[in-house]
């Protein structure tokens, strides 16, 4: 059964501007430790790849927070919600800390889809009740 649906569109230019203003501190505030490692690797290859990665993850966190119905209130924290890719490339949401405990207690499971173009990143999240 569907618990909630969330979607978000993020202007990549806005994320780029935030990085220019605040440096890597901005990424460290938004990304979890595993995401941060991927961000740094992609950014080292090409600045635009790193910025697009950060934008898609920012968007996914926004969409997830909407789908669970909490917004950005506790236990939802930026760094406790990571969107990482499986070996197949499929994105998945991995939760940590109090957010993971709350999510598990609710009996929920999340599905995420990400996409980006030159100026925008978009995410779509469906959260459903786990089957017994």
Automatic annotation (TrEMBL):
Q: Where is the 4'-phosphopantetheinyl transferase domain?
A: 4-106
Q: Which residues does the annotation say bind Mg(2+)? A: 8, 62
Which Pfam family name is an example for this entry? ACPS
**Matching InterPro entries:** 4-PPantetheinyl_Trfase_dom (IPR008278), 4-PPantetheinyl_Trfase_dom_sf (IPR037143), ACPS (IPR002582), Ppantetheine-prot_Trfase_dom (IPR004568)
Cofactor entry: Mg(2+)
Q: What is its EC number?
A: 2.7.8.7
Q: Name one GO biological process term.
A: fatty acid biosynthetic process
Which keywords fit this entry according to its UniProt record? Cytoplasm, Fatty acid biosynthesis, Fatty acid metabolism, Lipid biosynthesis, Lipid metabolism, Magnesium, Metal-binding, Transferase
| Location of this chain's protein in the cell | Cytoplasm
Q: Which reactions fall under this protein's catalytic activity?
A: apo-[ACP] + CoA = holo-[ACP] + adenosine 3',5'-bisphosphate + H(+)
Q: Name one GO molecular function term.
A: magnesium ion binding
Its Gene Ontology cellular component terms are: cytoplasm
Q: Which family does it belong to?
A: Belongs to the P-Pant transferase superfamily. AcpS family.
What is the stated purpose of this protein? Transfers the 4'-phosphopantetheine moiety from coenzyme A to a Ser of acyl-carrier-protein.
Q: What is the name attached to this protein's record?
A: Holo-[acyl-carrier-protein] synthase
Q: Which organism is it from?
A: Sphaerotilus natans subsp. natans DSM 6575
């Amino acid at each position: 059964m569907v618990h909630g649906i969330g979607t978000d569109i993020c202007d990549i230019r806005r994320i780029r501007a935030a990085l220019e203003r605040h440096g890597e501190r901005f990424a460290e505030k938004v990304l979890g430790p595993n995401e941060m490692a991927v961000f740094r690797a992609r950014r080292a290859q090409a600045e635009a790849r790193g910025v697009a990665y950060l934008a898609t993850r920012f968007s996914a966190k926004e969409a997830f927070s909407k789908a669970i119905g909490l917004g950005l209130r506790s236990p939802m924290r930026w760094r406790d919600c990571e969107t990482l890719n499986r070996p197949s490339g499929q994105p998945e949401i991995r939760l940590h800390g109090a957010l993971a405990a709350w999510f598990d207690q609710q009996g929920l499971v999340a599905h995420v889809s990400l996409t980006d173009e030159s100026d925008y990143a978009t995410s779509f999240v469906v959260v459903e009740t786990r089957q017994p």
